[in-house]
Specification:
Elements (H helix, E strand, L loop, with lengths): L1 H21 L14 E5 L2 E6 L3 E4 L4 H9 L2 E6 L10 H8 L2 E4 L9 H12 L4 E5 L4 H15 L3 H10 L5 H12 L4
Parallel strand pairs: 3-6, 4-5, 4-6
Antiparallel strand pairs: 1-2, 2-3
């Protein structure tokens, strides 16, 4: 009788493990889309926000002061240094703001840039302003980030990118191309 109970218990345990391991895991849930509203930072009107993230065009040094007053602690500048209209690094440093540089052009946008944005957002301590010259690159990088790191379907990622500034068809095409390539 003892051997029979032991056999039944062992069989139940093995069956339980087998059924647990063969159960399909639910796919990872994609991040919810952000809802953005128009905002203003100082005199900079080409800005949208979800409350914690601000997406926009090039801020002036005065706009950076206004950003700090809004609780923005990190500035992510997507412009290569040759495009800077003033020394944004010095202005940010003077205000005690963290500046993250991710120089992006429509031709050089990459999955690595999306990873850098993910890292910058993950280490931010407070609200974040992501900007370029016009907002177009902001939208392109945001769409790529949403697709590659949040698992958002490409059309939904592009829609989010457009909501935060993506406006040029060639950059949208580049985002779609990069998003379709397998991760390295």
């Amino acid at each position: 009788m003892r051997k029979s109970l032991w056999f039944v218990a062992a069989a139940a345990l093995v069956a339980g493990c087998k059924s647990e391991s063969t159960q399909k895991q639910a796919p990872a849930k994609a991040a919810a889309p952000i809802a953005v509203a128009p905002a203003k930072i100082g005199a900079l009107e080409k800005v949208v926000t979800d409350g914690n993230l601000y997406f926009g065009a090039q801020p002036s040094a005065d706009d950076l002061r206004a950003a700090k007053a809004l609780g923005i602690t990190t500035i992510v500048n997507l412009r290569p240094r040759g495009e800077w209209p003033y020394d944004e690094a010095a202005a940010a440093r003077e205000l005690g703001l963290r500046l993250v540089e991710i120089p992006v052009t429509p031709a050089t946008l990459s999955a690595n840039d999306a990873a850098k944005l993910r890292d910058a957002l993950g280490t931010a301590d407070g609200k974040v302003l992501i900007h370029c010259g016009s907002g177009n690159r902001v939208g392109g990088l945001w769409a790529l980030h949403k697709r590659l790191h949040d698992g958002v379907e490409i059309d939904a990622a592009i829609a989010e990118g457009k909501a935060v500034g993506l406006s040029a068809a060639p950059l949208e095409a580049r985002v779609r191309d990069l998003a379709s390539k397998p991760a390295k």
